[in-house]
Design brief:
The chain is of the alpha/beta class. It contains 13 helices and 12 strands. α2 crosses α12 and α6 packs across α7. The relative contact order is 0.17.
Length: 368
């Protein structure tokens, strides 16, 4: 018995050594697919309906998707909000946070600084403008001035004043029934002159027979011409203002100033196209600037603009044109983060089993 047992000892020792070597390797392999349970700091950028701030907590499509993944990986989440997309990307790059969760577009420039998961949403850029109309009052006035019509109106006003004075002097001399007080007489004459100039009719009695009738008829012709001129000039200017201020697609943006979100893909894109822009932290600030006339349109992610227009019907805004510059959203991490691979695997699982599509349908409806 002693000899066989002694013979078996080296084999047992070898087996024990193999087990000791394999166990760490299995643990390492598991760590590559699933991180150890714990808490992670997740940076967010509020961008409804993907990230919505509610009484100190966060909700939205991106938040729900992240929490579903974190639940699978046994990760507790501590959210940290950042004011702009640029700040969120920089915080991810610098390791201030473990993950970035929002509608973060995957670009080559960003991928050089941070790591992305598999894309989970297809998007692109669109344009939001003030609700279309015929142009504001001051826009019409400015257009009349640029076309030279205001100068013509000034001459017409001078003719009306001269006609009022002349008619007052004439009637005081030849019409016994004309008011004797200057104030009443001027008011009466002004009313007759303006009636001819604007309505094309005269309500005066004839003091000079057939000659007076010819004179009144001549004034009626002049009045009709004045009315036609004013109507046509205002109509043409309003049409021109409407066409000039109308933005219906990307081709209408050159020469305009547009609002964009700080650090966004839209900001980089309109800069590349040479379109003047102003940067704002979020859509609320950009929309306020557009309503104030600081910018003429907003260029941003299509789902963000569409959601804002739907939720703010009273703001008289509209999303116009087709989607351009298509892109995709992903979650982001520091390069070499042990979260990137397991989160991507869970994300792919949710894409395959329809979880992502169900979330998208709940937030955006049945059509993409």
């Amino acid at each position: 018995m002693g000899a066989p047992c002694a013979a078996l000892m080296p084999g047992a020792a070898a087996l024990a050594l193999m087990i000791l070597l394999l166990v760490p390797q299995a643990a390492i392999a598991q760590s590559e697919t699933e991180p150890a349970p714990g808490a992670v700091n997740v940076g967010v950028y509020v961008s409804p309906p993907f990230v919505v701030a509610q009484n100190g907590t966060y909700d939205g499509m991106a938040i729900e998707l992240w929490e579903a993944i974190a639940g699978k990986l046994n990760l507790a989440t501590r959210y940290v909000a950042y004011p702009t997309i640029r700040d969120l990307v920089n915080a991810t790059r610098d390791g201030e946070i473990d993950a970035a969760v929002t509608n973060l577009t995957i670009t080559r420039n960003r991928a050089e600084r941070i790591a992305f998961t598999q894309p989970w949403y297809d998007a692109g850029l669109r344009i939001m403008v003030p609700q279309e109309g015929t142009g504001g009052f001051w826009s019409v006035v400015s257009g009349l001035g640029n076309a030279g019509h205001l100068r013509a109106y000034a001459w017409l006003l001078l003719v009306i004043v001269a006609g009022t004075i002349g008619l007052t002097l004439f009637d005081r001399k030849f019409d016994p029934a004309f008011p004797k007080r200057w104030r009443d007489g001027v008011a009466e004459s002004f009313y007759h002159v303006v009636s001819v100039a604007t309505a094309g009719r005269a309500a005066r009695k004839n003091l000079f027979g057939w000659l007076g009738r010819f004179w009144q008829a001549a004034w009626l012709v002049v009045g009709v011409g004045v009315v036609a001129y004013i109507t046509s000039s205002v109509t043409s200017v309003m049409t021109t203002v409407s066409l000039e201020s109308g933005i219906h697609s990307l081709a209408d943006l050159p020469g305009k100033t547009v609002g964009v979100f700080t650090g966004s893909v839209a900001e980089d894109y309109v800069t590349e196209l040479g379109i003047a822009s102003r940067s704002y932290s979020d859509i609320d600030a950009a929309a306020a600037a557009m309503n104030a006339g600081t910018v003429e349109a907003i260029v941003g992610d299509a789902p963000i603009l569409e959601h804002f227009a739907h939720e703010n019907v009273g703001d008289d805004v509209a999303v116009v044109g087709n989607i351009f510059h298509p892109d995709k959203y992903g979650f982001a991490f520091l390069h070499d983060s042990d979260l990137t691979h397991p989160v991507t695997l869970r994300l792919l699982e949710f894409i395959e089993d329809g979880t992502v599509e169900r979330l998208r349908s709940r937030y955006f409806g049945s059509t993409p």
